[in-house]
Amino acid sequence: MTTTYVALLRGINVGGNKKVPMAELRELLGGLGLDGVRTLLQSGNAVFTGADRDPAELAAAIGRALEDRFGFPVTVMVRTAAELRAAAEANPFPDPASDPAKYTVTFLSAPADPEPLDAIDPSSYAPDEYRLAAGGRELYGRFPNGLGRSRLSPLLDRRRLGAEATTRNWNTVTKLLAMTED
Asked: What is the annotated signal peptide range for this record (predicted)?
């Protein structure tokens, strides 16, 4: 059986560090036996198909191949197209499409530890807000004044969440979802 996947690479091509050209990422994924590889933006988003397998195992294999090729570790999250669709449909905020750059989804490698999140006083960071998805593998954010100006967003990092994490804005999430449906 063939499955469509999305790979989300964390922390590449930011500020000239950890450079991974998208053409080389496509070539690397193809070399792993993945088909129809397409990338979105320079921040490490790829859509491809391959034999049905565990997304966490696939993420680990991609991470190893990236480190072998480029000489530095890269955290990779992999979701099936169905998982990405479910994450998009579960967004708890009304109408994120109205201003998609102000809404984010943080994809986690494992369910988040809710206890440290419960210690955050939401009123101290208003109008910014977050919601942890049922199952804890996605964290949704709303940042009306922008993610870069948020005092809340630095608190929602992988150390507090207890899992590796990578964040995408709503524009990127919906574009990736559309790519999985092409």
From this structure: none
> What pairs with residue 4 in β-bridges?
49
Query: Which H or E run contains 158?
Result: helix 158-161
How many C-beta atoms lie closer than 10 Å to residue 14's C-beta? 12
* Single-letter residue type at 54: D
Within 10 Å of residue 100's Cβ, how many Cβ atoms? 16
End-to-end CA distance of the chain: 18
Structure-token match 């419960």, residue found: 118
State how far the Cα of 45 lies from the Cα of 6, in Å rounded to an integer: 7
Q: The pTM is what?
A: 0.94
Under a CB-based contact definition with an 8 Å cutoff, are residues 132 and 161 in contact? Answer: no
**Which residues are CB-neighbours of 108 under 8 A, at least 6 positions away?**
77, 136, 137, 138, 139, 158, 161, 163, 164, 165
Longest dimension (CA), the chain: 49
Class of domain 84-181: alpha beta
Residues of the chain with CATH 3.30.70.1280: 2-82
Q: List pLDDT tens digits, range 14-60.
A: 877 899 999 999 999 999 999 999 999 988 999 999 999 999 999 99
Tell me which CATH code domain 2-82 carries.
3.30.70.1280
- Rounded Cα distance between 99 and 142, Å, is 10
